[in-house]
Amino acid sequence: MYLGIPGWRDDFDRSIAMARAFDPATRALVIMYKYVLGFMHGMLLPDQAALTDTLYVHEAAFSYTAAFRDADSVASLDALRRGLVIAQDSGNRFVESRLAIVLSRLDVGSNGAMLSGTSSDQSMAVTVVLFTQGKALVNLEFDSAPNDPIDPGVATDIGRKQDAAVKNGLPE
């Protein structure tokens, strides 16, 4: 890839131009290949072209998710997660924030969300599940060792059980 062969940057630019004739996923893959590997190996620096191209990848991930979230929800979530990793690795905080917000949404109660991070003093991992059910606002917090956050599936399962308990306990 970066073997010192003259014109390798131009090869990537031509590859991206050629990929435009194919489906959006192919173009996104070519763009990711150029920039993720280029940034990781220090061969490319973020510039306006990188921002424009990587924003295309971001929009492609959103489009894929919107189009296939009902038919293939696992694949659409995987596309968003891959986009988040790319955004984090490339330092694109706008895209990272937007994807993190979408991924934080949770199918628990109404307006469910899951947020994970570390405590302000860095002493523990903290995961919070928030949702509403009728007039109730539910806030579940899971604290654990700093490098051992609760499994998101377990937190979601507990959130769904709490949602059912709240729903059953609310007056009609």
Structure explained in plain terms:
The protein has 172 residues and is of the alpha+beta class. The chain has 2 domains: 8-104; 107-169, no CATH class. The protein has 6 helices and 4 strands. It has helices at residues 8-19, 24-40, 48-68, 73-90, 93-104, 152-169, and strands at residues 105-106, 110-118, 125-133, 136-144. Strands 1-2-3-4 form a 4-stranded antiparallel sheet. Strand 1 and strand 2 form a beta hairpin. Helix 1 runs antiparallel to helix 2 and helix 4 runs antiparallel to helix 5. The protein is elongated. The chain starts with 7 loop residues before the first helix and ends with a helix.
Q: Would you spell out the secondary-structure blueprint of this structure?
A:
Blueprint: H1 8-19, H2 24-40, H3 48-68, H4 73-90, H5 93-104, E1 105-106, E2 110-118, E3 125-133, E4 136-144, H6 152-169
Antiparallel strand pairs: 1-2, 2-3, 3-4
Total separate domains = 2
Helix and strand content put the structural class at: alpha+beta
Distance between the termini: 65 Å
Amount of beta strand: 15-25%
Number of helices: 6
What's the average pLDDT? 76
Q: Are there runs of 5+ residues with pLDDT below 50, and where?
A: none
Reading side by side through the largest sheet, how are the strands ordered? 1-2-3-4
Describe the global form.
elongated
Main sheet record: 4 strands, antiparallel
Q: Provide the helix percentage.
A: 55-70%
N to C succession of SSEs: HHHHHEEEEH
Rg over CA atoms, rounded to whole Å, is 20 Å
The total of beta strands comes to 4
